[in-house]
Design a protein that fits this description.
single chain, alpha/beta, Rossmann fold, Helicase, Ruva Protein, domain 3, 2 domains, seven-stranded mixed sheet, two-stranded antiparallel sheet, 11 helices, 9 strands, about 20% strand
């Protein structure tokens, strides 16, 4: 593994600062700096962008982003144990790294960032899906970010890019395809991480569309899709029974058979139904 900067290898950083990964925080550290640089490159040319990173840990991806030319990185880290290691990176890249010790679910990062903004993160497993849904369903569109380049468990990544009538098609696929172009950019085996998780991982790249593909209210669409797939084996007239008293009529008007199941319904039909509700 060749060096990407003058800082110590990540294994040494972890040892020096006593940074054993904590399961309670969903931590799995990437130690190969060539790999973290490759992930950073999936986000495209970063030289004119601010980058938001969630859960940098000991800073492997942070160093990849900075070495690949990011204008500035805002790293939000909940685990205070990681702050000394991140401060060393801050010193090595003067004026280009800001570190905030906070919970990403409770912080508005916009006050610290200047557009254009890209989000690149090896997301902690326990908050990744919730953060993604928040990024996909803001009140106003286009969002503050141009693209999301995110690490997930492979199963979650496949759900984000899934197509109708597949086993992995669900809420994440509908919300992602509504407002973004989404693709899996690369796969990573468990042994790429410390400690190795029990599952493989994948990097998903999502590019924000200027406008949603079809008109719909974000919160209504999210609620309808969540209820529809929460009981995916049920017919939609039953799964959506509590959404509206005349749900069967609204399903028919939206071009959906009341006896259909959620996995057979395409994005345009879900958006039409949300508009009727």
């Amino acid at each position: 593994m060749s060096a990407i900067d003058a800082l110590p290898p990540l294994r040494q950083v972890i040892t020096d600062h006593g940074l054993s990964a904590r399961k309670s925080l969903g931590q799995n550290f990437l130690l190969d700096l060539n790999l973290t640089s490759k992930i950073a490159r999936q986000a495209g040319d970063l030289s004119g962008c601010d980058v938001l990173e969630i859960g940098p840990g000991p800073g492997g991806l942070t160093r990849g982003l900075l070495s690949e030319g990011a204008r500035k990185v805002l790293a939000i880290e909940k685990d205070a144990r990681c702050l000394p290691a991140l401060s060393e990176i801050e010193a090595a890249y003067p004026g280009r790294l800001d570190v905030i010790n906070a919970d990403a679910l409770e912080l508005d990062p916009l006050m610290y960032l200047t557009p254009p903004i890209r989000v690149v993160a090896n997301l902690p497993y326990n908050v990744g899906t919730e953060l993604l849904i928040r990024w996909l369903t803001p009140a106003n569109w286009p969002p503050y970010w141009d693209s999301l380049t995110l690490m997930f468990q492979r199963e979650v990544a496949e759900r984000i890019v899934a197509q109708p009538r597949s086993k992995t098609y669900g809420r994440l696929a509908v919300l992602a395809s509504w407002r973004c172009d989404a693709r899996i950019a690369m796969h990573l085996p468990p042994e790429a991480f410390t400690p190795p998780p029990k599952v493989s991982s994948a990097v998903v790249h999502l590019t924000a569309l200027p406008e949603p593909r079809f008109p719909a209210d974000a919160k209504v669409l999210e609620r309808v899709v969540a209820k529809a797939f929460n009981q995916r084996r049920k017919m939609l007239r039953a799964a959506l029974k509590g959404v509206a008293p005349d749900i069967e009529d609204r399903l028919i008007t939206a071009g959906i058979k009341p006896t259909d199941r959620a996995e057979t319904v395409g994005l345009e039909q879900f958006c039409a139904l949300a508009e009727l509700i």
